[in-house]
C-alpha cells in the first residue's frame, strides 16, 4: 500500500541525530469504529510507523504489540486533575497503561492532557505536577530515558505570532509555562504543539491568503517577511513553529525541540466553511508530508524538520460540532482513502494510488446462508468467473464459504470499477485495504509476484445485451435476488 509509504522514510528531526517523521492521530468518535486489529492492519498496510492515541486503550495497545510502531499514549483531560493531585494515582496509571505493555508495545512518549491551558484552565495549576508525577513513575520503572513526557499546547497561547521574532506566550500563563519548560528542558523532552493553519486562515478575515495556509508555492514578493530578522515565510506552519521557538527564547529556553502533535485540514465543511474541501485537504496534507520529510526545516532553523502527526487517521462521524469536525480523516471507517494524496515529485516520497489496492471481502461473522446466496449470485447472474474456486484450482483452498465468497465479491467489485455500492451484497461484504491473496491465489488488484497489478476487465457499457451484471436478474439487482432467497427460506421453514 503506497498511500502513506513515505511515512516510514527518514530525514532529520529537531535534534540533528534523530530522524524526522510523519505520524497520525487515531481518534475513536466513529459510529462504526474498526476493531483494533483492523486499525493495526491499516497502519501496517500504509507503512505508518508513528501513531498518537488519545487515551491508553488496552485493546489498542495489545494490538500494537510486536509491530514496531512507535506509540504516544495520552492521559485524557478528565483524568488530569486526579493524576496532578496524587503521586500514587500517577504511578498506578503508568503501571497499568505503560509498564504493563512496554516494551512489546513501543511506547515512546506520554501526552499528559491536551491543550489544558485553553480547554481546561481549572486544571492548569496541577499540570506541571502531573508531568512530574508521571515522569517520576517512569523513573521508578527505569523507563525515563525511553519514554518522554510532555503536554500539547494550542498555538492560541502565543500572542503576536507574526512576525515570529516578536512572538511571546500569553504572560498570564507564565506561572505554568516557565516551570513546564524547565521540566521539558531538564528531562530532554520536547514541546508538543497543535498547529492548525485552517483555523488561522478562517479567523484571519482574508488577511492570510489561502495559498499561504496550504503550503502552495509563492513567489518571493508574496512571501511574508519578518522585518526584524529579514526571514521570508512561505506558509503559516513554519511561521507558527518559529513563533514558538521565539516565544520560548523570550523566556530564556533555547534548546527545547518542537514536536507537532496535531495538524491537518478538513475535507468537508458547512456552508460557511467553503474552503474545507477534498482538494484543499489533499493539498495541505500532501505538502505538509513533503515539507517534513524533505528536511526543509523552517526559516529560523533551516534543515531541521519538525516531526508532525496528521490529524487524523479516520473521519470521526460522531464528533460534536460543525461538519468540518467530522471530516479531518485520511480514511473512512472501512479503511478506504478519503482522497489520494498528491505525492509525486517529492524526492524519496512515492506516488501513491491506493484505489488500485482496495479489495472487497466477506465480513467477519456474516450469516453463512447469506454469504452462500451472495456467492451463488456473483458466480451466476453476476457473471464472475469463479473457475479458480474449483477443486484443484489456485483459490479452492480453503474450501469454505467465507474464502470463496471473498474471491467472488472482490472479482465482481473490480469488474464493476470498484464503486462502493458494488461491495455490499446486502451487508455481508465490505471494502478493505488488506490484500486477501494467499499462496498462488492472487486476487484482482493485487500486486502479483511479478510486481504488476492483476486486473479484471469491466463490462462494456455499450453492450446491447443485458446491461451491467448488477441488473441482470429478473430485471432487478442483487438486493432483489436476496429478497427472493429470503422468501424461499421463509417458505421452506413456515409452509
UniProtKB/TrEMBL annotation:
Reactions the enzyme catalyzes: Hydrolysis of (1->3)-beta-D-glucosidic linkages in (1->3)-beta-D-glucans
Keywords assigned by UniProt, alphabetized: Cell membrane, Disulfide bond, Glycoprotein, Glycosidase, GPI-anchor, Hydrolase, Lipoprotein, Membrane, Plant defense, Signal
Leader sequence residues: 1-16
Locations listed in the record: Cell membrane
GO MF annotations in UniProt: glucan endo-1,3-beta-D-glucosidase activity
Enzyme Commission numbers on file: 3.2.1.39
Any single Pfam family the record assigns to this protein: Glyco_hydro_17
GO cellular component: a single term: plasma membrane
Family: Belongs to the glycosyl hydrolase 17 family.
Protein name: glucan endo-1,3-beta-D-glucosidase
Organism expressing this protein natively: Liquidambar formosana (Formosan gum)
Amino acid at each position: 500500500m503506497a498511500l502513506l509509504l513515505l511515512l516510514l522514510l527518514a530525514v532529520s528531526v529537531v535534534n540533528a541525530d534523530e530522524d524526522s517523521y510523519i505520524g497520525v492521530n487515531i481518534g475513536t468518535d466513529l459510529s462504526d469504529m474498526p476493531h483494533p486489529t483492523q486499525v493495526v492492519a491499516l497502519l501496517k498496510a500504509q507503512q505508518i510507523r508513528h501513531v498518537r492515541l488519545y487515551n491508553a486503550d488496552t485493546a489498542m495497545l495489545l494490538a500494537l504489540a510486536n509491530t514496531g510502531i512507535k506509540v504516544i499514549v495520552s492521559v485524557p483531560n478528565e483524568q488530569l486533575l486526579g493524576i496532578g493531585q496524587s503521586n500514587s494515582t500517577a504511578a498506578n496509571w503508568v503501571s497499568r497503561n505503560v509498564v504493563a505493555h512496554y516494551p512489546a508495545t513501543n511506547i515512546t512518549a506520554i501526552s499528559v492532557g491536551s491543550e489544558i491551558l485553553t480547554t481546561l484552565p481549572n486544571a492548569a495549576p496541577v499540570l506541571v505536577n502531573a508531568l512530574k508525577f508521571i515522569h517520576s513513575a517512569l523513573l521508578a520503572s527505569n523507563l525515563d530515558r525511553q519514554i518522554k513526557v510532555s503536554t500539547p499546547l494550542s498555538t492560541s497561547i502565543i500572542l503576536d505570532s507574526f512576525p515570529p521574532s516578536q512572538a511571546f506566550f500569553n504572560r498570564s500563563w507564565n506561572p505554568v509555562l516557565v516551570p513546564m519548560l524547565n521540566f521539558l528542558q531538564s528531562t530532554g523532552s520536547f514541546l508538543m504543539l497543535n498547529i492548525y493553519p485552517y483555523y488561522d486562515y478562517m479567523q484571519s478575515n482574508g488577511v492570510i491568503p489561502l495559498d499561504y495556509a496550504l503550503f502552495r508555492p509563492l513567489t518571493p514578493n508574496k512571501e511574508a517577511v519578518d522585518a526584524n530578522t529579514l526571514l521570508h515565510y512561505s506558509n503559516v506552519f513554519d511561521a507558527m513553529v518559529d513563533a514558538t521557538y521565539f516565544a520560548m527564547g523570550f523566556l530564556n529556553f533555547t534548546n527545547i525541540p518542537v514536536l507537532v502533535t496535531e495538524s491537518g485540514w478538513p475535507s468537508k465543511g458547512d456552508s460557511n466553511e467553503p474552503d474545507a474541501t477534498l482538494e484543499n485537504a489533499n493539498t495541505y496534507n500532501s505538502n505538509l508530508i513533503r515539507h517534513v520529510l524533505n528536511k526543509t526545516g523552517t526559516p529560523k532553523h533551516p534543515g531541521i524538520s519538525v516531526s508532525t502527526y496528521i490529524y487524523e487517521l479516520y473521519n470521526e462521524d460522531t464528533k460534536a460540532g460543525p461538519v468540518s469536525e467530522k471530516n479531518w480523516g485520511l480514511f473512512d471507517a472501512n479503511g478506504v482513502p478519503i482522497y489520494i494524496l498528491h505525492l509525486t515529485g517529492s524526492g524519496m516520497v512515492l506516488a501513491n494510488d491506493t484505489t488500485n489496492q482496495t479489495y472487497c471481502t466477506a465480513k467477519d461473522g456474516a450469516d453463512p446462508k447469506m454469504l452462500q446466496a451472495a456467492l451463488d449470485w456473483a458466480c451466476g447472474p453476476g457473471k464472475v468467473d469463479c473457475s479458480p474456486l474449483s477443486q484443484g484450482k489456485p483459490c479452492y483452498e480453503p474450501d469454505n464459504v467465507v474464502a470463496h465468497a471473498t474471491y467472488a465479491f472482490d472479482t465482481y467489485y473490480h469488474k464493476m470499477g470498484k464503486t462502493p455500492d458494488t461491495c455490499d451484497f446486502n451487508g455481508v461484504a465490505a471494502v478493505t485495504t488488506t490484500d486477501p491473496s494467499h499462496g498462488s491465489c492472487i486476487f484482482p488488484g493485487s500486486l502479483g509476484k511479478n510486481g504488476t497489478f492483476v486486473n479484471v476487465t469491466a463490462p462494456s457499457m455499450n453492450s446491447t445485451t443485458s446491461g451491467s451484471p448488477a441488473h441482470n436478474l429478473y430485471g432487478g439487482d442483487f438486493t432483489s435476488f436476496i429478497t427472493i432467497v429470503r422468501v424461499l427460506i421463509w417458505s421452506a421453514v413456515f409452509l
